[in-house]
Amino acid sequence: GNSVTQMEGPVTLSEEAFLTINCTYTATGYPSLFWYVQYPGEGLQLLLKATKADDKGSNKGFEATYRKETTSFHLEKGSVQVSDSAVYFCALSPLSGGYNKLIFGAGTRLAVHP
Amino acid sequence: EAGVAQSPRYKIIEKRQSVAFWCNPISGHATLYWYQQILGQGPKLLIQFQNNGVVDDSQLPKDRFSAERLKGVDSTLKIQPAKLEDSAVYLCASSLGGPNEKLFFGSGTQLSVL
User: Fold this and answer.
1) Do the Cβ atoms of B100 and A32 come within 8 Å?
2) Which of A6, A89, A99 has the highest number of chain B CBs within 10 A, making it the mutation to test binding with B?
């Protein structure tokens, strides 16, 4: 079946530190991969996506590369800010039947302190 | 543009009572999703509509949960009777409907079953 596994949180970093949040997936075929973010008090919103192997999604200084050989989609940012504190969800869409259907990981909470 | 609207924001009920949640998607979005997010877990898809037809309800506990999408726009999700394990945040999302289209999420309804 289809599933997503994320590293457990919380991840606590100092401002300007390097961030990596690991994500691996299990899927039949070639899914599309996503990172969604949930800031405190807000709804989930798309951060970035990649739709085929070796694609790199990027947004707001975050990036993730679709690695088919390791079935991974790790999220990275070179220098985090306090405003990046949020819960980050890795997700895949198996695109079965042509419809977009998201399967989420458990989420990783990031706390950045000054 | 207006986002996905959900109501109520919070609901507290006793087990065996019934409850209903309402969702108004972004205008023009063909696909509507209901997700259940239990504390500490990622969102789990309950049901997906394409216009007013059901695309996927494989994880909807049909003995107690029901959902409808009126005229392909608004949607309601009902639980009757509620159980303690239904305590969760119920998220509504919508998208244009094509493969890899971004999902827009509402803020959710937090349900507590006592």
Assistant:
1) yes
2) A99
Q: What is the pLDDT of residues B28-61, one digit of tens each?
A: 999 999 999 999 889 999 999 998 899 999 999 9
CB–CB of B98 and A100 under 8 A? yes
Contact B113, B86 (CB under 8 A): yes
In the three-class reduction of DSSP (H, G, I as helix; E, B as strand; rest coil), residue A26 is classed as: strand
Cβ-count burial B45-71 (b if 16+ within 10 Å, e if not): bbbbbbeeeebbbeebeeeebbbebee
Answer for the pair A110, A7: CB distance below 8 angstroms, yes or no. no
Burial of A69 (0-12, 13-18, 19+ CB in 10 A): exposed
pLDDT tens digits, B65-85 = 999 998 889 999 999 999 999
Residues of A in contact with B105 (CB under 8 A): 43-45
DSSP bridge pairs for B66? B78
Tell me the one-letter amino acid at A9: G
Closest-CA distance of chain B to residue A56, Å: 15
A22-34 tens-digit pLDDT? 999 999 888 999 9
Contact A42 B103 (CB under 8 A): no
